[in-house]
Amino acid sequence: MEHAESHGRRRLLNWFLGTSAGALCASLVYPVVRYLSPPTVPETTTAQVEAGSTMDPDLVEKGFKILRFGAEPVILIRVSETDFRAFSATCTHLSCIVEFRKARQLIWCNCHNGVYDLNGRNIEGPPPRPLTPFEVHLVSGGPGQPEKLVVSRKA
Ligand code: FES
C-alpha cells in the first residue's frame, strides 16, 4: 500500500517536473520563433499626397522638398512656375536620399556622387537605375490663392 502511494507521488512529481520543463522550453523558444517569422502585415498603400502650395518657400528658394508618400520619401522639384516633377527620393545605388541641385538643374546623391537628370534618368556615377517617377497635379487653391500640388503614383 505504502509502495503504491510512493509510486503515485513519484509519477505526479515526474509529471509536474516534465510539464514545467516543457513550459519553460516553450516560453524560451516561442519568442525566438515569432521573431524569426513575423506575421505578414500588408503595407498600407498611399494613393496621393497633398504637397502644399506652388509658392512653398522651400520650392521657390531651394527648388525642391522631400515628401513622405506613405513610408516612401519622394522628392518634389520645381523646374519652373508651372513645371513640377516628383520622383522616389531613394537613390537606386545604396538607398541614400537624393536632393536637387538648383544651379545645375540635376538630381544629386551626395553619398557617392550619383547624378540623375530632370526625368529621373541616372546619368553619372554608380546609380544603376532611374528614379521611379510620380505624377504631380496642380489643383486650384481657391480665389486669389496659389495653386496646390498633389502627388500621386503613376498608373
Ligand atoms: S547611394 Fe546614391 S550614389 Fe550611392
How far is it from the N-terminal to the C-terminal residue, by CA?
83 Å
The coarse overall form would be elongated
| Tally of distinct domains | 2
The CATH topology of the largest domain is given as Rieske Iron-sulfur Protein
Trace the largest sheet across and list its strands.
Answer: 1-10-9-4-3-2
Q: Strand portion, in percent?
A: 25-35%
- Distinct bound molecules: FE2/S2 (inorganic) cluster
Describe this structure in words.
- The protein is of the alpha+beta class and 155 residues long.
- It has 2 domains: 1-41; 48-153, Rieske [2Fe-2S] iron-sulphur domain (Rieske Iron-sulfur Protein, 3-layer Sandwich).
- It has 2 helices and 10 strands; from the N terminus they run H-E-H-E-E-E-E-E-E-E-E-E.
- It has helices at 2-36, 57-61; strands spanning 48-53, 64-69, 72-78, 84-88, 99-101, 106-109, 114-116, 122-124, 133-139, 148-153.
- A hairpin with a 4-residue loop joins strand 6 (106-109) and strand 7.
- The mean pLDDT is 89.
- The protein binds FE2/S2 (inorganic) cluster.
- Residues 91, 93-94, 96, 109, 111-112, 114, 125-127 line the site of FE2/S2 (inorganic) cluster.
